[in-house]
Each structure stands twice: as C-alpha cells, then as structure tokens.
Design goal:
Helices cover about 35% and strands about 20% of the residues. The protein has 19 helices and 19 strands. The strands form 3 sheets. The chain has a 9-stranded mixed sheet, covered by helices on one side. A 5-stranded mixed sheet has the order 10-11-14-12-13, sandwiched between helices. α1 packs parallel to α4. The longest helix has 24 residues. About 0% of the residues have low confidence. The structure holds adenosine-5'-diphosphate (ADP) and magnesium ion (MG). Magnesium ion binds next to α2. Molecular chaperone. Has ATPase activity. Homodimer. This is Chaperone protein HtpG. Keywords: ATP-binding, Chaperone, Cytoplasm, Nucleotide-binding, Stress response.
C-alpha cells in the first residue's frame, strides 16, 4: 500500500479558506460554476497541448464533463477528461494561493462588508475553494496527461491540512467528489444542477452531461452572422465569458475577410471592472479571448488590442494563425498586428457611431471608460484624430454632467475668439469659483472645465484643434482685450507703476512678476502661470505622485 502523505496549507491559505467559507460568499451555487469552469479549462489545455505535444496521453472517450448525483447519499461527482495534475501541480494549484495580494484584497472586502459575489471569485484564482461552502470534505482524483504520470488522490476538509496518495487511475483527467452538507442537499437534485449550469455555464465549449443528458448548448456565437444573433443569447454569452453579472452596454459583431480573416464578438461593459478600481494596472492582463479555428489559445490576450481598449471583452477567432504557436510567436506575428489594427479601427468607429446614434449609451460608456480611452492620445498616434473627436468636456456653458465636444465648442465660439480655453482642477464647483474665469464669464467666452485627473496629462498635448490653439486660462500670455467695462475708470499710470513695484518688493523671490491684469472683473488679484510654466493642476498631481 502506497503511503498517504499529509501536507499543511500555508498560513495565508488557512485564512483565505476561512474567509471564503464563513464570511464572503452569498451564492453557494457558485461552487458549481467554478468546478465546471476548471474542468473546461483542463479540457481546453489538453486540446491545446495535444496539438503541440506528441507525448500526451489520449483521452479515453469524448472531451467532455460528466456530473453524477446520488440524491439519497447526497453525493456529488464531477469528472473531466482534461489535462489532469501531477503531484507538484496538486500542491501548487490546490495548496497555495496563486496570486499574491489576494488575501489582502479579500480582507479589505470583508472589512468593507462587501459580498464576494460570483463576479470576483473567478477573477482571483480561488474558485476551487468555493466547494468548501457546500461540503466538509473533498476528494480529487487525478492523472496528468503528461507521459509517465500516475494516478493521485488529494483529500482535504479545508481545515489546515490535505493529503495526497497514489492510486490506480487509468485515464487522464480529474474526478472531484464530495458529500453535500445537509443544508445544501438541493445540489444533489437534477433540476437544480441543470438550472445552475444553464445559468452560468451554458456556453462552455465542451459538452456537460448530467447522466446521459447534455445540459449546455455548445455553440460558437461569434461564428454566426450578425443577423442571426439573438440579443438574449449574446448577453448571456457576455456574462459567461466576462464573469459580469450585468448585461453588456453594447456589442459589436465583426467579420473580416481579406489579407487576414477573422471573426469577433466584442462587448462594452456597463461598468469599469473592479480590478480597475482596486488594483491599478491590472488591466494589462485583460483583453478578449483568442481562438484559432475554434480552439481557445489564450483566455485574456493582451496583444489583440492596444492597452487603452483592453477593457473590451469578447472573442476573436482567426484561421490565419497556426494552432501550435507559442505565446511569443503570437505576440510578434504580423497577423496579430494586422488584427489589432483592424479591430482598433472598428472599435473607434463603433464608439463614434454610438455617440451619434445612441448618445445616452455613449455617455454611460464615456463616464466609465473615458479616463482609460484618453490615455490612447499619448500612445496611439495613428488614431489620435479619431480619439480627439471622442473627447467630451463639461464647460461653463454646459450643465453639470453634460458634455461638449471640441467640434461643438469651435462651432459656437465667437468670430473674435482665436483660442480654445480650458481650466483644470479637482471639480466643477471649485473650477467655477476661480477668479481667472471672471473675464471669460463676463464676456460669454466658453471655457472647458477639466476635472478628470487624467486630463492634465493628455489635453495639453493636443496643442491645437481645427487650427485653434488649446490654452489653459491660467496662462499669462492670453491676449485679453484692454477695453474697460462701461463706467469703469482705467487706473492712472502714475499710480500703477509704484503700486506694482511695492508688490514686487513684498513678494520677492516667490513670484516671477506682478503685472496689471485685464482679466479680472470682480476680484482684485489672481495668480497665473508663465507661458512655459506648468498648469497648477498638473503641478499638484506631480507633487502627489512624488509622495
Ligand atoms: P483558477 O481556475 O482561477 O486558476 P481555481 O482555484 O479555480 O483557480 O483552480 C486552481 C488551479 O487548480 C487551476 O488553475 C488548475 O491548475 C487546477 N485545477 C483545478 N481544477 C482542475 C481540473 N479539473 N483539472 C486540472 N486542473 C485543475
Ligand atoms: Mg477556476
């Protein structure tokens, strides 16, 4: 008899399990989605590896997921013929937390009394452990598809230790079995399992069988012509691939034939993903799924879209890449570059169309993703002009939360006005209270109000639009007309000169100069920046970042 080895979870793992089981989950049914998703991943890896690796053990039957229930004994079994796991993989995958920072993140959620909904669990690589919500003891029997592998049994009660022993297992793949807690006996009922599978796993691209019956509809939606797509299906598909609970804001179906051929189904989420809010920079790991001839090659392919569009979810399927390509080859392939270029153009065109045809949707999109898209102005020079047209600003002539485009601004500016004016700061109210606005307000000159923190980094780089320079109203070199308001006496030269000298003397090194101003209406003084000086909002941002 082979010995049973006992292992201890890392301390971090214990805390994580405790959090998952006792505080964070509110939807126990999620365990089913997570187990199915792992089984599908394992099948997908096997399908992909078999194309590149000759030594792989073949599956006994169809590539599929089988669920078996025993209502009397409350037994639940899920089995796949996927890639399986070796002993090292069992320890690495089921005994440790994969992503660093996960525990801290979960704890912060708990402190904020936030629920760990299904939306998040999959994103943080802790899906497997959700099974401990519905059972006290889990058995994983697995055999890796790699040559020379052996059968293994992993067992744990999620309490601090797990065991691994060798077993007899003839076929590759993984079988996970457990007895349900009495309170979750519903998951031993066929109707309930079918319901949950239909809800979360309908688009898994391997058949899922409950006994003899197939529960999911395996269809590659992105292969269908646009006219055949049903909105309900498309929305469900989006939720399935993105782990989002909400419908997408909009979707785009793309079919390209030519120098490269591909089909794509792309989605605009309603909201920016949690990662974007909680984990800055994590977005670099997002992107649509890449399929080659209906085989998934990469789950989150960075190379399909430029970074500033990587919040777009979906599937891209091409015939023009070879199946046995490595990640590096995909990355540097001219086919990918071509696909990225075409997709970018299509997506920017899609945004443009939304702006014209569905302005409310566009506004929702812009509020959620505007700050990310703007970054493209500094990185994607080919599409700069298109991106500039997408920009939206509040201004002194819009209401709060209403937008104006640069085109509209230029169309309504007076004949005299030669420049486009903007004012940047932390928020509308603060911006409107600034004395530098007085001149513009009193003469009815529109000023764009920039309150998105990204604005100061990207807007000044536009320099001009429609041959009109963009200028911060804080700058000293604005050409104010000298005419005084009616009934107002100009200050006599012999008073002004000594007065300015007094100011210069008092302020000394702290300032560059004191000059007579024609920009003020009711305030006596204001501070402005020199021609080449940094915008004050920019200066504040730089200081904040240095801290
Ligand atoms: P994630 O799926 O996000 O990586 P999970 O906690 O769901 O996180 O699973 C952890 C890891 O365990 C997986 O990445 C995979 O390597 C391994 N695993 C889980 N289930 C299976 C399975 N059925 N077959 C093979 N490997 C599996
Ligand atoms: Mg998983």
């Amino acid at each position: 008899n082979a010995p049973v080895q006992e292992f201890e979870y890392k301390a971090e793992m214990k805390q994580l399990l405790d959090l998952i089981v006792h505080s964070l989950y509110t939807h126990p049914e999620i365990f089913l989605r997570e187990l199915v998703s792992n089984a599908a991943d394992a099948l997908s890896k096997a399908r992909f590896s078999s194309l590149t690796d000759g030594g792989l053990m073949a599956a006994a039957g169809e590539d599929a997921i089988h669920i078996t229930l025993d209502k009397e004994k409350l037994l639940f079994v899920i089995e796949d013929s996927g890639i399986g796991m070796s002993e090292d993989e069992l320890i690495a995958n089921l005994g440790t937390v994969a992503k660093s920072g996960t525990l801290g993140f979960m704890q912060s959620l708990q402190e904020q009394k936030k629920e760990l909904d299904g939306n998040l669990i999959g994103q943080f690589g802790v899906g497997f452990y959700s099974v401990f919500m519905v059972t006290e003891n889990v058995t994983v029997e697995t055999r890796s598809a790699q040559e020379g592998s052996e059968g293994l049994r992993w067992q744990s009660s999620g309490q601090g230790t797990y065991t691994i022993e060798k077993i007899e297992k003839n076929e590759r793949g993984t079988r996970i079995s457990f007895t349900l807690k009495e309170e979750y006996k519903e998951f031993a009922e066929e109707y309930r399992v079918e319901q949950v599978i239909k809800k979360y796993s309908n688009f898994v691209d391997f058949p899922i069988y409950l006994g003899e019956k197939q529960l999911n509809s395996v269809t590659a939606l992105w292969q269908r012509p646009k006219s055949e797509l049903q909105e309900g299906d498309v929305h469900e598909f989006y939720k399935f691939i993105s782990n989002d609970f909400e419908d997408p804001l909009d979707y785009l179906s793309v079919s390209v034939e030519g120098a490269v051929s591909f089909k794509a189904l792309l989605f605009l989420p309603q909201n920016a993903p949690m990662e974007l809010l909680y984990r800055q920079g994590e977005l670099e790991n997002k992107g649509p799924q890449l399929y080659v001839k209906k085989v998934m090659i990469q789950n989150e392919c960075r190379d399909l879209l430029p970074e500033y569009l990587r919040f777009i979810a979906g599937v891209v399927d091409t015939e023009d890449l070879s199946l046995n390509v490595s990640r590096e080859v995909v990355q540097s392939s001219p086919v990918m570059a071509k696909i990225r270029q075409i997709l970018t153009t299509k997506i920017l065109g899609w945004f443009e169309e939304l702006a014209v045809e569905q302005p409310e949707k566009f506004k929702t999109f812009y509020k959620a993703f505007g700050p990310i898209v703007k970054i493209g102005l500094n990185t994607d020079f080919t599409n700069r002009d298109k991106l500039i047209e997408l920009l939206r600003f509040e201004s002194t002539k819009t209401g709060e939360g209403e937008f104006v485009t640069l085109k509209e601004y230029v169309a309504r500016m007076g004949g005299e006005q030669k420049e486009i004016y903007y004012h940047s700061g932390a928020g509308r109210a603060q911006l409107l209270a600034n004395p530098n606005l007085e001149y513009f307000q009193s003469r009815g000159i529109e000023v764009l109000l920039l309150s998105d923190p990204v604005d100061v980094f990207v807007i000044p780089s536009i320099h001009e639009y429609d041959s009109k320079p963009l200028k911060s109203i804080e700058k000293a070199d604005i050409d104010f007309s000298k005419e005084t308001t009616e009934g107002e006496e100009p200050v006599a030269e012999n008073l002004l000169v000594p007065l300015l000298a007094k100011f210069r003397e008092a302020l000394g090194e702290d300032i560059a100069d004191v000059v007579e101003s024609h920009r003020l209406v009711s305030s006596p003084v204001t501070i402005v920046g020199g021609k080449d000086a940094m915008d004050s909002q920019m200066e504040r941002m730089m200081k904040m970042m240095q801290q």
